[in-house]
Specification:
Layout: E1 3-7, H1 29-36, E2 39-42, H2 44-47, H3 52-61, E3 67-71, H4 74-79, H5 86-96, E4 103-109, H6 118-127, E5 134-137, H7 146-154, E6 158-159, E7 161-164, E8 167-168, E9 179-183, H8 196-209, E10 216-220, H9 227-241
Parallel strand pairs: 1-10, 2-3, 3-4, 4-5, 5-6, 7-9, 9-10
Antiparallel strand pairs: 7-8
Helix pairs in contact: 6-7, 8-9
Protein backbone atom coordinates (compact mmCIF):
# COMPACT_ATOMS: atom_id res chain seq x y z
CA UNK A 1 0.00 0.00 0.00
CA UNK A 2 1.13 3.59 -0.54
CA UNK A 3 1.43 6.42 1.93
CA UNK A 4 -2.13 7.57 2.59
CA UNK A 5 -2.07 11.37 2.81
CA UNK A 6 -4.97 13.49 4.04
CA UNK A 7 -6.03 16.08 6.58
CA UNK A 8 -7.57 16.08 10.05
CA UNK A 9 -11.14 17.03 9.20
CA UNK A 10 -12.70 18.57 6.11
CA UNK A 11 -15.36 21.06 7.28
CA UNK A 12 -13.43 24.32 7.50
CA UNK A 13 -14.92 27.52 6.13
CA UNK A 14 -11.45 28.99 5.62
CA UNK A 15 -10.77 26.30 3.02
CA UNK A 16 -12.98 28.14 0.56
CA UNK A 17 -10.95 29.05 -2.52
CA UNK A 18 -8.27 26.61 -1.36
CA UNK A 19 -10.08 23.29 -1.74
CA UNK A 20 -13.71 24.34 -2.07
CA UNK A 21 -14.83 26.78 -4.78
CA UNK A 22 -16.48 29.85 -3.29
CA UNK A 23 -19.93 28.94 -4.61
CA UNK A 24 -19.87 25.29 -3.52
CA UNK A 25 -22.47 24.53 -0.80
CA UNK A 26 -21.12 23.03 2.41
CA UNK A 27 -23.39 20.00 2.13
CA UNK A 28 -21.21 18.61 -0.68
CA UNK A 29 -17.81 19.39 0.80
CA UNK A 30 -17.20 15.76 1.74
CA UNK A 31 -17.82 14.68 -1.85
CA UNK A 32 -15.41 17.36 -3.06
CA UNK A 33 -12.82 16.34 -0.47
CA UNK A 34 -13.09 12.70 -1.52
CA UNK A 35 -12.50 13.71 -5.15
CA UNK A 36 -9.15 15.17 -4.08
CA UNK A 37 -7.92 12.87 -1.30
CA UNK A 38 -8.28 9.15 -0.60
CA UNK A 39 -8.32 9.51 3.18
CA UNK A 40 -9.36 11.81 6.01
CA UNK A 41 -9.05 11.78 9.78
CA UNK A 42 -12.45 12.41 11.35
CA UNK A 43 -11.63 14.45 14.45
CA UNK A 44 -15.21 15.65 14.87
CA UNK A 45 -15.96 12.32 16.56
CA UNK A 46 -13.70 13.40 19.44
CA UNK A 47 -16.05 16.24 20.43
CA UNK A 48 -19.35 14.48 19.79
CA UNK A 49 -19.59 10.89 18.64
CA UNK A 50 -21.88 10.70 15.60
CA UNK A 51 -24.49 7.98 15.32
CA UNK A 52 -23.91 4.82 13.31
CA UNK A 53 -26.35 6.20 10.75
CA UNK A 54 -24.16 9.27 10.19
CA UNK A 55 -21.09 7.10 9.69
CA UNK A 56 -23.09 5.00 7.24
CA UNK A 57 -24.04 8.14 5.34
CA UNK A 58 -20.36 9.14 5.10
CA UNK A 59 -19.58 5.68 3.73
CA UNK A 60 -22.26 6.07 1.08
CA UNK A 61 -21.10 9.58 0.10
CA UNK A 62 -17.48 8.62 -0.55
CA UNK A 63 -16.01 6.58 -3.43
CA UNK A 64 -14.75 3.00 -3.25
CA UNK A 65 -11.36 2.73 -1.57
CA UNK A 66 -11.79 5.87 0.52
CA UNK A 67 -10.48 5.50 4.10
CA UNK A 68 -11.69 7.43 7.17
CA UNK A 69 -9.63 7.31 10.34
CA UNK A 70 -11.65 8.15 13.46
CA UNK A 71 -10.46 10.03 16.53
CA UNK A 72 -11.82 8.35 19.64
CA UNK A 73 -14.38 10.23 21.70
CA UNK A 74 -13.06 12.48 24.45
CA UNK A 75 -15.41 10.64 26.80
CA UNK A 76 -13.02 7.70 26.62
CA UNK A 77 -9.76 9.64 26.61
CA UNK A 78 -10.30 12.91 28.47
CA UNK A 79 -13.28 12.31 30.77
CA UNK A 80 -12.82 8.64 31.67
CA UNK A 81 -9.04 8.94 31.07
CA UNK A 82 -9.06 5.32 29.83
CA UNK A 83 -10.66 4.06 33.04
CA UNK A 84 -13.33 1.38 32.54
CA UNK A 85 -12.97 1.55 28.75
CA UNK A 86 -15.34 -1.25 27.86
CA UNK A 87 -18.56 0.73 27.36
CA UNK A 88 -16.96 3.76 25.61
CA UNK A 89 -14.95 1.55 23.25
CA UNK A 90 -17.98 -0.61 22.45
CA UNK A 91 -20.08 2.47 21.75
CA UNK A 92 -17.36 3.97 19.56
CA UNK A 93 -16.94 0.82 17.52
CA UNK A 94 -20.67 0.29 17.13
CA UNK A 95 -21.00 3.79 15.67
CA UNK A 96 -17.84 3.81 13.55
CA UNK A 97 -18.76 0.37 12.23
CA UNK A 98 -21.20 2.19 9.97
CA UNK A 99 -18.19 2.97 7.76
CA UNK A 100 -17.83 -0.71 6.89
CA UNK A 101 -14.67 -1.40 4.89
CA UNK A 102 -13.91 2.34 4.74
CA UNK A 103 -13.03 2.43 8.44
CA UNK A 104 -9.37 3.24 8.94
CA UNK A 105 -7.41 3.37 12.19
CA UNK A 106 -8.89 4.58 15.47
CA UNK A 107 -6.80 7.39 16.99
CA UNK A 108 -6.64 7.39 20.79
CA UNK A 109 -5.20 10.79 21.72
CA UNK A 110 -4.46 11.08 25.42
CA UNK A 111 -4.76 14.36 27.34
CA UNK A 112 -1.42 16.07 28.06
CA UNK A 113 -2.09 15.83 31.81
CA UNK A 114 -2.59 12.06 31.77
CA UNK A 115 0.54 10.40 33.12
CA UNK A 116 1.55 6.87 32.30
CA UNK A 117 -0.86 4.14 33.34
CA UNK A 118 0.07 0.85 31.72
CA UNK A 119 -2.86 -1.06 33.17
CA UNK A 120 -5.43 1.37 31.77
CA UNK A 121 -3.74 1.40 28.37
CA UNK A 122 -3.63 -2.39 28.26
CA UNK A 123 -7.28 -2.74 29.23
CA UNK A 124 -8.28 -0.18 26.61
CA UNK A 125 -6.33 -1.76 23.77
CA UNK A 126 -7.59 -5.21 24.72
CA UNK A 127 -11.20 -4.04 24.29
CA UNK A 128 -10.88 -3.11 20.61
CA UNK A 129 -12.05 -5.87 18.26
CA UNK A 130 -9.44 -7.97 16.51
CA UNK A 131 -8.48 -6.48 13.18
CA UNK A 132 -9.15 -2.88 14.19
CA UNK A 133 -6.08 -0.71 13.89
CA UNK A 134 -5.46 1.57 16.88
CA UNK A 135 -2.97 4.44 17.02
CA UNK A 136 -2.12 5.92 20.42
CA UNK A 137 -0.94 9.52 20.85
CA UNK A 138 0.35 10.04 24.41
CA UNK A 139 1.23 13.63 25.28
CA UNK A 140 2.94 13.34 28.67
CA UNK A 141 6.64 12.40 28.75
CA UNK A 142 6.08 9.78 31.45
CA UNK A 143 4.75 7.44 28.73
CA UNK A 144 8.15 6.96 27.09
CA UNK A 145 9.06 3.69 28.80
CA UNK A 146 10.00 0.23 27.58
CA UNK A 147 6.89 -1.17 29.27
CA UNK A 148 4.59 1.13 27.29
CA UNK A 149 6.40 0.27 24.09
CA UNK A 150 5.99 -3.45 24.82
CA UNK A 151 2.24 -3.02 25.42
CA UNK A 152 1.83 -1.26 22.08
CA UNK A 153 3.83 -3.94 20.27
CA UNK A 154 1.92 -6.75 21.97
CA UNK A 155 -1.43 -5.32 20.81
CA UNK A 156 -0.25 -4.27 17.34
CA UNK A 157 -1.04 -0.64 18.16
CA UNK A 158 0.92 2.11 16.46
CA UNK A 159 2.59 4.84 18.45
CA UNK A 160 1.25 7.96 16.75
CA UNK A 161 4.21 9.96 15.52
CA UNK A 162 3.42 13.64 16.10
CA UNK A 163 5.06 16.89 15.08
CA UNK A 164 4.81 20.50 16.16
CA UNK A 165 6.92 23.28 14.67
CA UNK A 166 8.86 20.79 12.59
CA UNK A 167 10.05 18.72 15.56
CA UNK A 168 8.99 15.24 16.72
CA UNK A 169 6.99 15.27 19.94
CA UNK A 170 7.53 11.57 20.54
CA UNK A 171 10.26 8.92 20.37
CA UNK A 172 10.25 7.45 16.87
CA UNK A 173 9.24 3.95 17.92
CA UNK A 174 7.98 1.38 15.45
CA UNK A 175 5.39 -0.59 17.40
CA UNK A 176 3.17 -1.97 14.62
CA UNK A 177 3.35 -3.14 11.05
CA UNK A 178 1.86 0.17 9.90
CA UNK A 179 2.50 3.86 10.60
CA UNK A 180 0.45 6.84 11.75
CA UNK A 181 1.77 10.43 11.60
CA UNK A 182 0.04 13.68 12.62
CA UNK A 183 1.50 17.09 11.80
CA UNK A 184 -0.01 19.72 14.08
CA UNK A 185 1.74 23.01 13.35
CA UNK A 186 4.52 24.13 11.04
CA UNK A 187 7.19 26.74 11.72
CA UNK A 188 7.22 28.37 8.28
CA UNK A 189 5.66 31.62 7.09
CA UNK A 190 2.75 32.16 6.88
CA UNK A 191 1.73 30.36 10.07
CA UNK A 192 1.01 27.43 10.44
CA UNK A 193 2.59 26.22 7.19
CA UNK A 194 5.38 23.65 7.10
CA UNK A 195 8.63 24.40 5.33
CA UNK A 196 10.13 22.17 2.67
CA UNK A 197 12.91 20.93 4.95
CA UNK A 198 10.47 19.77 7.64
CA UNK A 199 8.30 17.93 5.12
CA UNK A 200 11.28 16.24 3.49
CA UNK A 201 12.53 15.21 6.94
CA UNK A 202 9.27 13.40 7.67
CA UNK A 203 9.38 11.66 4.29
CA UNK A 204 12.90 10.51 5.16
CA UNK A 205 11.94 9.31 8.66
CA UNK A 206 9.08 7.23 7.29
CA UNK A 207 11.29 5.76 4.56
CA UNK A 208 14.02 4.86 7.05
CA UNK A 209 11.56 3.03 9.30
CA UNK A 210 9.03 1.38 6.99
CA UNK A 211 9.23 -0.25 3.57
CA UNK A 212 7.07 1.02 0.72
CA UNK A 213 4.62 -1.88 1.06
CA UNK A 214 3.57 -0.78 4.57
CA UNK A 215 0.45 1.32 5.16
CA UNK A 216 1.47 4.77 6.43
CA UNK A 217 -1.33 7.18 7.36
CA UNK A 218 -0.26 10.85 7.30
CA UNK A 219 -2.66 13.59 8.40
CA UNK A 220 -2.09 17.34 8.53
CA UNK A 221 -3.86 18.99 11.46
CA UNK A 222 -2.68 22.57 10.78
CA UNK A 223 -5.99 23.58 9.24
CA UNK A 224 -6.00 27.44 9.55
CA UNK A 225 -5.96 29.18 6.21
CA UNK A 226 -5.88 25.93 4.27
CA UNK A 227 -2.31 25.18 5.36
CA UNK A 228 -3.14 21.51 5.89
CA UNK A 229 -4.33 21.11 2.31
CA UNK A 230 -1.31 22.82 0.79
CA UNK A 231 1.14 20.97 3.02
CA UNK A 232 -0.46 17.60 2.29
CA UNK A 233 0.03 18.26 -1.42
CA UNK A 234 3.66 19.27 -0.98
CA UNK A 235 4.40 16.35 1.34
CA UNK A 236 3.00 13.99 -1.28
CA UNK A 237 5.14 15.60 -3.98
CA UNK A 238 8.30 15.14 -1.89
CA UNK A 239 7.37 11.54 -1.11
CA UNK A 240 6.82 10.75 -4.78
CA UNK A 241 10.13 12.39 -5.64
CA UNK A 242 11.76 10.09 -3.10
CA UNK A 243 10.30 7.08 -4.90
CA UNK A 244 7.42 6.39 -2.52
CA UNK A 245 3.90 5.52 -3.62
CA UNK A 246 1.35 8.05 -2.39
CA UNK A 247 -2.43 8.35 -2.65
CA UNK A 248 -3.87 11.13 -4.78
CA UNK A 249 -3.78 14.78 -3.84
CA UNK A 250 -5.32 17.81 -5.58
CA UNK A 251 -3.10 19.79 -7.93
CA UNK A 252 -5.21 22.90 -7.30
CA UNK A 253 -4.14 23.15 -3.67
CA UNK A 254 -0.68 24.54 -4.40
CA UNK A 255 -0.05 28.26 -4.51
Amino acid sequence: MPILVGTSGWQYTHWRDVLYPSGMPQRVWLERFAECFDTVENNNAFYRLPSREVFTTWRERTPPGFVMAVKASRYLTHIKRLKDPEEPVDRLMNAAGGLGDKLGPILVQLPPTLQVDVDRLTRCLRRFPAGVRVAVEPRHPSWWTDEVRDVLVRHGAALCWADRLGRPLIPLWRTAGWAYLRLHEGAATPWPDYGDQALRSWVRRLAETWDDDVDAYVYFNNDPGGAAVRDAVRFAEFARAAGRRVTRTPALATR
